[in-house]
């Protein structure tokens, strides 16, 4: 049986440092959704010296734009967005105290270097399982940029949100380790 690490938000350096690439994780607590349009507005606010609409210190951003909730549901489908679209914004967000990111796909060298410098972890969510992931969301509310519709920043309360540590705070990268492990040698 696989050992699943249960963690709660907000994240501490101790928890982040204890997570290793390949770990299966179950997250409970508050996470925030934000995609490229919201990230662009956040970075503009930081660069203008404005206060952010959310305190991201020790928090997790989930790269997702949920669909509207069906009757009786808290949220609609809530699958991950390709993380590379946020790479230009991620290092500055980490400097604001962000401790975790959830998405799909590999990250740039600059993002991994910023993760190491700021003790941040990157989780991979399961693409194609958006409806299943939505079941772990117990509460959802728009907290910033409502005008962006699905790309607005939402505060989600999750319970046992499933994901995998794709890149840990030491830079160990499952996207690279996996390729090396299964590489065919002549």
UniProtKB/TrEMBL annotation:
InterPro entries the record matches: Fe-S_hydro-lyase_TtdB-typ_cat (IPR004647), Fe-S_hydroAse_TtdB_cat_sf (IPR036660)
Keyword set, alphabetical order: Lyase
Residues in Fe-S hydro-lyase tartrate dehydratase beta-type catalytic domain copies: 8-176
Keyword 4Fe-4S listed: no
Keyword Nuclease: no
One Pfam entry name: Fumerase_C
A GO molecular function held by the record: hydro-lyase activity
Protein family (similarity comment): Belongs to the class-I fumarase family.
Name under which the protein is recorded: Fumarate hydratase
UniProt source species: Robertmurraya siralis
Organism taxonomic ancestry: Bacteria, Bacillati, Bacillota, Bacilli, Bacillales
């Amino acid at each position: 049986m696989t050992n699943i690490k249960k963690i709660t938000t907000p994240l501490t350096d101790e928890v982040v440092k204890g997570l290793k690439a390949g770990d299966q994780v179950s997250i409970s607590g508050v996470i925030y959704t934000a995609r490229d349009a919201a990230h662009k507005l956040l970075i503009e606010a930081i660069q203008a010296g404005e206060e952010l609409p959310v305190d991201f210190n020790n928090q997790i951003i989930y790269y997702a734009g949920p669909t509207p909730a069906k009757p009786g549901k808290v949220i609609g489908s809530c699958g991950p967005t390709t993380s590379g679209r946020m790479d230009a914004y991620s290092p500055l967000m980490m400097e604001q105290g962000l401790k975790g990111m959830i998405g799909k796909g590999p990250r740039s060298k600059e993002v991994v270097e910023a993760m190491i410098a700021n003790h941040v972890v990157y989780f991979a969510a399961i693409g194609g399982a958006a409806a299943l992931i939505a079941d772990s969301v117990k509460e959802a509310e728009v907290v910033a940029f409502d005008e962006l519709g699905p790309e607005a920043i939402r505060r989600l309360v999750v319970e046992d949100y499933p994901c995998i540590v794709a890149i840990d705070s030491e830079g160990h990268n499952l996207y690279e380790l996996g390729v090396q492990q299964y590489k065919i040698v002549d």
